[in-house]
Write a structure and sequence with these properties.
Distance between the termini: 79 Å
Radius of gyration: 31 Å
Number of strands: 0
Structural class: mainly alpha
Order of helices and strands: HHH
Number of helices: 3
Strand content: under 5%
């Protein structure tokens, strides 16, 4: 068993050395490394964006809670109706912004 090992080690080493020398293989490895780095940057960017969106979502939740409190105290009306009107207003503002953006691009 030891003799077989002694004979195969140089053959394996020589094969590995030849593989490492192939230009095409090295190019492929570099492409994979570049792609891995690009993917890592994208993941980092998305992680940061996710954190910002979570913070914004928390702020919006707090705003909704505050809005419900104001409605309950001052209006004594239907909170859900007011929230729906505020959301509808936000949709209208978003649509106006989109229309303005399209108009400016033309």
């Amino acid at each position: 068993a030891g003799g077989v090992c002694i004979v195969t080690v140089p053959l394996v080493w020589a094969s590995e050395w030849r593989l490492a020398r192939f230009i095409a293989l090295r190019k492929r490895v570099h492409l994979f490394r570049d792609e891995a780095e690009r993917t890592r940057r994208i993941v980092n960017s998305l992680t940061i964006e996710e954190e910002e969106l979570n913070e914004e979502m928390e702020t919006i939740k707090q705003g909704n809670v505050h809005l419900k409190e104001v409605v309950e105290e001052q209006i004594s009306g239907n909170v859900d109706e007011l929230v729906e009107l505020v959301q509808e207003n936000q949709n209208v503002l978003n649509q106006m912004e989109e229309n303005l953006r399209r108009y400016m691009l033309q």
